[in-house]
Design brief:
Helix content: 55-70%
Shape: globular
Largest sheet: none
Oligomer: single chain
Distance between the termini: 20 Å
Length: 161
């Protein structure tokens, strides 16, 4: 499946944000080591940050692909199942990576595990600054008993990253 331009744009923005967060995390870990909190091994920290960032961005790419493929599903129950399966796979991927960080001594645990949270940080930042792509659908009418239909593309901004 080919990614839509909007998905590619969001993936690029999340990737850039994760990279910025990586630099900030590395700087904080270095400064903490200077004051005697923990040790700073360049190779361990960089390996953890690099691999953790790959896992975090891959997680977001899987989310984008899921949203794109789910939009084509007419049956709401099947669409919900697709989202749930994707969520479970992405959660398992993240948990497995944290376990790998804990078990492999060549990876700095914090530098490896923290990047999993960085896409959320970037999304919160972009949302606070009003920089997220907004949906083009009109807002629902304030009155009426009918519940508005959910747009599957809204799940891109749902913080399940």
């Amino acid at each position: 499946m080919k990614l839509q331009p909007a998905s590619r744009k969001e993936i690029a923005r999340i990737s850039l944000g994760v990279l910025i967060c990586d630099f900030l995390m590395i700087a904080v870990l270095f400064l903490l080591s200077l004051v005697g909190v923990g040790t700073f091994s360049v190779s361990r920290v960089l390996l953890g940050a690099l691999c953790g960032s790959v896992v975090a961005v891959l997680n977001f790419v899987i989310l984008c692909v899921t949203v794109q493929s789910a939009v084509e599903i007419e049956n709401k129950r099947k669409m919900k199942q697709r989202f749930q399966l994707s969520y479970n796979i992405r959660l398992l991927l993240q948990a497995a990576w944290v376990v790998v960080c804990a078990l492999i001594p060549q990876i700095h645990f914090i530098a490896g595990a923290a990047p999993i949270l960085f896409p959320n940080v970037v999304i919160y930042f972009l949302q606070a600054r009003g920089k997220l792509i907004s949906s083009s659908r009109p807002s629902p009418a304030p009155s009426g008993d009918a519940e508005p239909e959910e747009d599957p593309e809204d799940h891109l901004n749902s913080f399940e990253v």
